[in-house]
Every structure is written in C-alpha cells, then in structure tokens.
Write a structure and sequence with these properties.
Elements: H1 2-29, E1 44-45, H2 46-62, H3 68-71, E2 76-77, H4 82-109, H5 121-133, H6 136-149, H7 156-162, H8 169-180, H9 184-195, H10 203-212
Parallel strand pairs: 1-2
C-alpha cells in the first residue's frame, strides 16, 4: 500500500511539473502547450471585468441572482485590447471639452443680472480668454447662449469678443448681429468703436449704418 501511495504521489508531482512547464513554454515562446497539458484558466480582460461588475450591480438593484461565472471572473488581465486605449483617450478628451464648456457657462451665468457699475476690463478680458478655450465645435453654441442671456448692461463682455479681429468671422458676425438688435445706448458706442478700425471685418457694414443714420464721426 505504501508503495502504491508513493507511485500516486510521484504521478501527481509529474503532472504538476508538466503543467508548470507548459505555462512557462507559453510565456516564453507564445506557442500552444502540448495536447496532454492541463488547461490554463483564461484571463478576463479589463473591459470584460468592468462589464461583469456592471451586470452584478444591475442584478443587485433588481434583486436578481448572479451566476458564479459572472460574479467571479476567472482571472483579471489589466491589459486592454488595441482599440480600447484609443476609445479611452477619446472619452478623456470629451470630458475635458465638457469642463471647458462648463467653465464658460459658469462665467456667463455670473453676469445674468444687470451690473450697476461698468463691467471692468479685467472681466471683459477673462470672458474673452475663457471663450477662446472653448472647443471650436462648441463655440457657436456657447456664444449663442451668452448672447441670449447677457443683459444690455453687461454687453461689454461681448465687446471683448467683437473687437477681437483674431476671432473667426462667423463668431464676430454672431456678436455683431446681436449688438445691432440691442438698445441704442449700447449699440452706438460699439459701432463708433468699430468704425475707427478699417481692418475690422464689420467695418463696411458699420460705415453704411452710420452714414444712413447720419452719425458718422467727423461729419
């Protein structure tokens, strides 16, 4: 009996050595293990692990039971498939864009009530700088929101963008058309300021308006 037990122990030890050799062969050569080698547990990718956790959470909320396989993935592999890294970078970029848009929204919202005093130039410059940080794909949206919400008393915030000739023409046009629909007390000073600069994209239209209304400076 003792001799039989020894043979079994030797056999088990040999099987373990074979399995270990198979794993080492996989790690170093990347080739498939021998057909008679014990099966190695398949690792679970990071994405599969996250999906499993979401499945567990949803099941827990519904009071459902989760199978053992879903509840405990075989092994966790922290490496991602090739496409996962690009997707993650895209998500990070989208989050950063949302933060910049949110920051401009917040700055706009601080000026929703008419200011009793003149808007300081420091605030005008910060407003323009924050607008410049907004992703191009969201600029028109953010600017239109500001045009709709800012009262006449705080229009100087928009003037910081309008008088910046480095802005794309489409944004200058948005602000310019909004200014033309503002109160005369707001509109006239800005039109006269634009008239001083012949290189401004809106100069020709401004000169025509001031000429028609008989308000060209110096006439």
């Amino acid at each position: 009996m003792a001799r039989g037990n020894m043979k079994r122990w030797i056999g088990a030890g040999a099987a373990f050595v074979i399995a270990l050799a198979a794993v080492l062969w996989i790690l170093h050569s990347g080739e498939k293990p021998p057909a008679d080698a014990p099966a190695v547990a398949k690792k679970t990718s990071a994405r599969e692990a996250r999906a499993a956790r979401r499945q567990i959470a949803r099941a827990a909320q519904k009071g459902e039971k989760v199978g053992a396989k879903a509840a405990a993935p075989a092994a966790f592999d922290d490496s991602e498939p090739p496409g996962a890294t690009a997707m993650t970078e895209e998500e990070v970029r989208a989050n950063e864009e949302e933060k910049l848009v949110g920051a401009f929204y917040d700055m706009t919202d601080k000026w929703l009530k008419p200011s009793k005093a003149d808007v300081p130039m420091e605030a005008v410059e910060k407003f323009r700088e924050q607008f410049n940080k907004v992703p191009r794909a969201r600029k028109a949206e953010c600017l239109q929101r500001a045009l709709n919400l800012l009262p006449d008393a705080n229009v100087m915030l928009l003037a910081g963008i309008l008088l910046d000739k480095g802005q794309p023409a489409e944004y200058l046009e948005l602000v310019y058309n909004d200014i033309l629909n503002r109160d005369e007390s707001v509109k006239k000073p800005l039109l006269k300021e634009i008239f001083k600069d012949r290189e401004h994209p809106c100069w020709a239209t401004t000169a025509w308006i001031l000429d028609v209304t008989g308000e060209i400076p110096g006439k």
